[in-house]
Amino acid sequence: MIQVLKITRTLLAVLRRAFLIFALSSIAVSPAVSQNSAPRATPSTDGSLRLAASSLVEGLSETNWRDLSSWGGAQVATDFIQSEPVEGNPASERTEVRVGFDEEAIYVGAWLYDSEADQILVGEQRRDANLRRFDAFLVVFDTYSDRENGFVFATNPGGIEHDGQVIDEGRNTSRGSGGSRGNQGRQQGGAQGGFNINWDASWTVLTERDDQGWYAFFRIPFSTLRYGTSSEWGINFGRYIGRKNEQVFWAPLPRQDNLYRVSYAGTLAQLDVPVRRSVTVTPYALSSAQKVPAVTSNFDYPFEAGADAKIGITPALSLDLTLNTDFAQVEVDNEQMDLTRFSLFFPEKRPFFLENAGRFAVGNNSSAQMFFSRRIGIGAGGAPVPINWGSRLSGRVGGLDVGMIHMRTGEVDGLAQGNGYTVARVARELPNRSGVGMMYTGRDATGISDDFGRTFA
């Protein structure tokens, strides 16, 4: 019995000593472990991540943007966090982003280092190509700091331009940020919110590659954007590493979300945005020579001319005007086959209707669709109808989102009569992702008093 007690006491002493050694070693090691442990992705709806933009005396160009001294000591956004494949883990490759601005434009420079630079996946070389399965860099600007709307600019190592407008954090849009078109057919038509990938801005992108990785440079004119008077914008950066199926973001995002979720974005501070008005006029002229030998020996010389104008009334409100509108250079629709009794909704690609198309959205895809811009300028059986002139006012006034369109179409003998179309929309965002608004749509046939339609909501 005494021998058993001695063995028990000895065993307890050994266990105590082992526990003490384990505890001391845990205390000694825990700081190192915590430094290397992966932080979990958490919302930063209060803008807790902040990046100060650098005011540049001289603008950046293709010759000096890789020179760090040209960025005027700009702060660096780094320490990106994965959303895939392991949510919350640090990015496997180092990324550094700098932001600067001058009186004309905002600049974004990205240093996208890669330990296997020869394995970088370039992807497709066309505008607005799908970026998801390749290497890519993306930025979103929440220019009104409303945590709901924004502008996305992106590229791949080949230097393509990829851009679009985010409305209501990309609602009704499939998760695949950066080119996944998903459920966007009706949204792009100007009738629904989400992500308008057919919005094509005027901006510049440059990319370079070496044995350390690849690099991207964006020059985005302020005249391209619509923004408020605040010196702070919401901002987030994303990077795709194609061969690893890895998505990383500066302001962490949960796995189920994408860059369109601007409520998670950080804050871009110390901006000094210009408030001057911008005016852009784009005239055009078309002519040709035609002769039908079986009918006449003379040539016909049809001639057409017109113009588009954009007037920035304020940085947040713009007026678009068009006269004798020509859409000859617009991208052709993809062919679709309809075997149902329901109408097809081809995406809107005409520039006049694209900017701020989400201002005319009501509800979601399951709601009644009050306005579909592709119906303007098309007659029975798909015959084109000329647009004689039109105007559109869109943007933000105070806390109100406003949009107004009036278009006047011409008559086509035997196919379509002339019509006037009017659309007006006013909305105000409320807390908790809610809102209230009104909308009016109307059509009046030219010269026929009893041929009209009115809708209010």
UniProtKB/TrEMBL annotation:
Residue ranges annotated as compositionally biased, kind Gly residues, are 176-193
InterPro entries linked: DUF5916
Which species expresses this protein natively?
marine metagenome
According to UniProt, the name of this protein is DUF5916 domain-containing protein
Q: Where is this region: Disordered?
A: 162-194
* All residue ranges annotated as the DUF5916 domain in the record: 280-378
Skewed-composition ranges (Basic and acidic residues): 162-172
> What high-level taxonomic lineage is stated for the organism?
unclassified sequences, metagenomes, ecological metagenomes
Report the Pfam families cross-referenced here. Answer: DUF5916 (PF19313)
